[in-house]
Amino acid sequence: MSKNQNKTGSYSFFHCIEKNFDKAAQFISIEKGLLEQIKACNSVYRMHFPVKIGKEIKVIEAYRVQHSHHKLPCKGGIRYSMKVNQDEIMTLAALMTYKCAIVDVPFGGAKGGIKIDPQTISSENIEKITRRYTSELIKKNFIGPGIDVPAPDYGTGEREMSWIFDTFLSLRSGDVDALACVTGKPISQGGVRGRKEATGLGVFYGIRELCHVKEDMYSVGLDVGLVGKKIIIQGLGNVGYHAASFFHESGAIIIALAEREGAIYNEKGLNVSKVFLHLKNNGSILNFPEAKNIKNTEKALELECDILIPAALENVIHKNNANRIKAKIIGEAANGPITPEADEILDKKGVIIVPDIYLNAGGVTVSYFEWLKNLSHVRYGRMEKKFRENVNAEFLKVIETFCKKTISIEEKKMILRGPREIDLVRSGLEDTMINGFHKICDIKKSLKIENMRTAAFVLSINKIIDSYERLGIFP
Ligand code: GLU
User: DSSP letters of 44-81?
Assistant: First the structure.
């Protein structure tokens, strides 16, 4: 058994990512030592701290890993889950490094995790744990606007980010940039409009881009365009929920949605907002009136469909179910949902896999916009909205005089409108996802690489090498 295998003979998650990295490294001619440096995790902070829950003192296990310092601050979410362990957090931190490089977000990768099940703990106790974790990070200098900036991830959201900010501020009062110590905050606490849905919207933009590439669509026997494509989404957290809504709105057909307790299926399509209302009212997606239940949620991944979107946790597609996957396209909204063994099986079957390090980068892209907003202390659009509207009005007057025609009030409203924060954030995200997609495709073509994952890694590693070279560390 190799040192990268565990007792059951399977490989560690970190080693899986190293394998993807090594495949890409074959296309890069650079000194091996630099590649080793890029691959390695720079700092791992493992902590245990006591928290009084009820009458008992519980020892909480938690992590913050900074994978790369080639750009600062480090950036990455914090997850709350019973599956949290060092290997997982190291891997997710590494994925953040590669992800940020692909979408030109100037951060090193990081990730944090607390080993708790937030569904079984009261919100008072989650708050206690979050605040204590934050103060541990502050003590060790593992958080700060220019050091390391957490964000939401699996099991966390705006509420936790608010507590992190508040704890940071109370211990660093007077720091004028304190708001930039964490992203994914509520709007009233310095958050940016569009952050909540950003990862799901980025997934939508990435898949939409792919669906417009003729050669790719023909290679898997599909028509060009997203309209009418049959989609399955696994995981209805923040990412899966928003991705499902955007796909549904754009005319794709959501035939199945899968959650922990089971999945629901309707070949003619599910009305996403109705399903969410049902989920809210009943605490489960099962027994939705217009759908069939699928008790074994894993079976939903194996249904006939055009596009499969795993949007929950890692390793859900593995060597034992890969052969039964019938999707023609898999969009990795989650981090690491496909094991390397499954990846090879699916590659051989000709499935197009849109990799996580590109596809779910929308979240960190908009986190970057939030961080910039916090450092500039001004809302996007505040300075230029009215100015743009005035310029547009003048422009319109000239056109009307020139054409001797009056434009309708409705049309005028549309043309005159200056950009709001949400417009700027969404267009920045769309542009980022479109650019990232085409850069990966260009590398894939020029180096004759067979799959998008390896091409995405090549793009990312080249960018990191470039940063190191500019730093002058490796002349
Ligand atoms: N948790 C998200 C991710 O895995 C977002 C990270 C961030 O915004 O910093 O990409």
Answer: EEEEEEEEEETTEEEEEEEEEEE---SSSSEEEEEEE-
Predicted TM-score of the model (pTM): 0.95
Query: Per-residue pLDDT tens for 425-474?
Result: 999 999 999 999 999 999 999 999 999 999 999 999 999 999 988 877 65
- Which of 372, 455, 469 is closest to 28 using CA atoms? 455
For the chain, domains (ranges, CATH) are 41-189 (3.40.50.10860), 192-384+419-452 (3.40.50.720)
Burial category of 446 from C-beta neighbours within 10 Å (exposed 0-12, middle 13-18, buried 19 and up) = exposed
Q: For residue 326, is pLDDT > 70?
A: yes
Ligand 1 binding residues, C-beta < 6 A: 75-77, 151, 153, 183, 335, 360, 363-364, 367
289: Cβ contacts below 8 Å, ≥ 6 apart: 278
Longest Cα–Cα distance in the chain = 81
pLDDT of residue 192: 98
Residues 6+ apart with CB under 8 A from 400: 406, 407
- Name the nearest CA neighbour of 337 among 19, 93, 16, 76: 16
Non-local CB neighbours of 462 within 8 Å, separated by 6+ positions: 28
User: If you measure from the C-alpha of residue 291 to the centroid of ligand 1, how many angstroms do you get, rounded to a whole number?
Assistant: 33
Instruction: Answer yes or no: is pLDDT of 70 > 90.
Output: yes
